[in-house]
Amino acid sequence: MSTAVAQRTGTTYEVRRQKDIAGRTRAVLTCTEGSGAVTALAWGPEEGLDLTTAAGQAVVVGATLENWLGRSPTPGEVAQLLERLAAGAGLAGQPWQLTGEQLEQAGFQP
Questions:
Q1: What are the percentages of helix, strand and coil residues in the chain, rounded to 5?
Q2: Which candidate, 109, 107, 84, 106, places its Cα nearest to that of 6?
Q3: Residue-wise pLDDT tens for the chain (110 aa)?
Q4: Contact status, residue 9 vs residue 101, Cβ threshold 8 Å
Q5: Is the Cβ–Cβ distance between 89 and 49 less than 8 Å?
Q6: Which member of 27, 35, 80, 99 lies 3.0 to 4.6 Å from 49 by CB, making a disulfide possible if both were Cys?
Q7: Are 50 and 27 in contact (CB under 8 A)?
Protein backbone atom coordinates (compact mmCIF):
# COMPACT_ATOMS: atom_id res chain seq x y z
CA MET A 1 0.00 0.00 0.00
CA SER A 2 1.41 3.37 -0.96
CA THR A 3 1.85 6.16 1.56
CA ALA A 4 -0.80 8.27 -0.18
CA VAL A 5 -3.35 5.48 0.08
CA ALA A 6 -2.40 4.71 3.67
CA GLN A 7 -2.94 8.36 4.60
CA ARG A 8 -6.33 8.41 2.85
CA THR A 9 -7.76 5.27 4.45
CA GLY A 10 -8.68 7.16 7.64
CA THR A 11 -10.73 9.66 5.64
CA THR A 12 -14.41 10.24 6.40
CA TYR A 13 -16.85 12.30 4.34
CA GLU A 14 -19.92 13.56 6.17
CA VAL A 15 -22.98 15.73 5.53
CA ARG A 16 -24.23 17.46 8.66
CA ARG A 17 -26.85 20.05 9.43
CA GLN A 18 -25.80 23.13 11.38
CA LYS A 19 -27.45 26.35 12.49
CA ASP A 20 -25.84 29.54 11.22
CA ILE A 21 -25.62 32.79 13.15
CA ALA A 22 -29.08 33.84 11.96
CA GLY A 23 -30.59 30.54 13.17
CA ARG A 24 -31.08 29.06 9.68
CA THR A 25 -30.30 25.40 9.15
CA ARG A 26 -27.42 24.92 6.71
CA ALA A 27 -25.84 21.77 5.33
CA VAL A 28 -22.11 21.17 5.12
CA LEU A 29 -20.15 18.36 3.45
CA THR A 30 -16.85 17.85 5.25
CA CYS A 31 -13.79 15.68 4.73
CA THR A 32 -11.99 14.58 7.89
CA GLU A 33 -8.53 13.16 7.27
CA GLY A 34 -7.00 10.49 9.47
CA SER A 35 -4.87 13.22 11.06
CA GLY A 36 -8.02 14.99 12.24
CA ALA A 37 -7.81 17.85 9.73
CA VAL A 38 -11.30 18.88 8.57
CA THR A 39 -12.06 20.55 5.22
CA ALA A 40 -15.47 21.86 4.13
CA LEU A 41 -16.08 20.69 0.56
CA ALA A 42 -19.60 22.06 0.02
CA TRP A 43 -22.02 24.09 2.10
CA GLY A 44 -25.17 26.07 1.73
CA PRO A 45 -28.91 25.89 2.23
CA GLU A 46 -30.20 22.53 3.37
CA GLU A 47 -31.88 21.95 0.01
CA GLY A 48 -28.56 22.09 -1.87
CA LEU A 49 -27.16 19.03 -0.10
CA ASP A 50 -30.47 17.21 0.40
CA LEU A 51 -29.71 13.51 0.05
CA THR A 52 -33.36 12.71 -0.67
CA THR A 53 -33.11 14.46 -4.07
CA ALA A 54 -31.16 13.46 -7.17
CA ALA A 55 -29.64 16.95 -7.41
CA GLY A 56 -28.44 16.91 -3.80
CA GLN A 57 -27.03 13.41 -4.17
CA ALA A 58 -25.13 14.44 -7.31
CA VAL A 59 -23.60 17.46 -5.51
CA VAL A 60 -22.52 15.41 -2.49
CA VAL A 61 -21.16 12.46 -4.49
CA GLY A 62 -19.47 14.72 -7.06
CA ALA A 63 -17.69 16.80 -4.39
CA THR A 64 -16.72 13.67 -2.46
CA LEU A 65 -15.23 11.98 -5.53
CA GLU A 66 -13.44 15.14 -6.64
CA ASN A 67 -11.72 15.37 -3.27
CA TRP A 68 -10.96 11.64 -3.09
CA LEU A 69 -9.69 11.28 -6.66
CA GLY A 70 -7.88 14.64 -6.82
CA ARG A 71 -9.67 15.49 -10.07
CA SER A 72 -13.16 16.11 -11.38
CA PRO A 73 -15.05 12.82 -11.60
CA THR A 74 -16.63 11.75 -14.86
CA PRO A 75 -20.43 11.57 -15.03
CA GLY A 76 -20.03 7.78 -15.23
CA GLU A 77 -18.05 7.70 -11.98
CA VAL A 78 -20.69 9.79 -10.21
CA ALA A 79 -23.43 7.48 -11.52
CA GLN A 80 -21.42 4.40 -10.49
CA LEU A 81 -21.03 5.59 -6.90
CA LEU A 82 -24.66 6.71 -6.69
CA GLU A 83 -25.78 3.25 -7.84
CA ARG A 84 -23.47 1.54 -5.38
CA LEU A 85 -24.66 3.70 -2.49
CA ALA A 86 -28.32 3.25 -3.40
CA ALA A 87 -27.89 -0.52 -3.56
CA GLY A 88 -26.38 -0.55 -0.06
CA ALA A 89 -28.68 2.14 1.39
CA GLY A 90 -25.58 4.32 1.71
CA LEU A 91 -27.47 7.56 1.16
CA ALA A 92 -29.80 7.12 4.12
CA GLY A 93 -29.44 8.58 7.56
CA GLN A 94 -28.35 11.82 9.11
CA PRO A 95 -25.61 12.60 9.47
CA TRP A 96 -24.54 10.91 6.25
CA GLN A 97 -21.05 9.39 6.28
CA LEU A 98 -18.83 7.65 3.75
CA THR A 99 -15.32 6.41 4.48
CA GLY A 100 -12.22 6.14 2.33
CA GLU A 101 -12.36 2.39 2.84
CA GLN A 102 -15.87 2.31 1.34
CA LEU A 103 -14.67 4.33 -1.65
CA GLU A 104 -11.78 1.93 -2.18
CA GLN A 105 -14.14 -1.06 -1.94
CA ALA A 106 -16.28 0.60 -4.62
CA GLY A 107 -13.23 0.70 -6.90
CA PHE A 108 -12.16 4.34 -6.47
CA GLN A 109 -8.46 4.78 -5.77
CA PRO A 110 -7.03 8.14 -4.70
A1: 40, 25, 35
A2: 109
A3: 223 333 466 899 999 888 889 999 999 999 998 888 999 999 988 888 888 888 988 999 999 999 999 999 999 999 999 888 877 655 555 557 888 888 888 889 88
A4: yes
A5: no
A6: 27
A7: yes
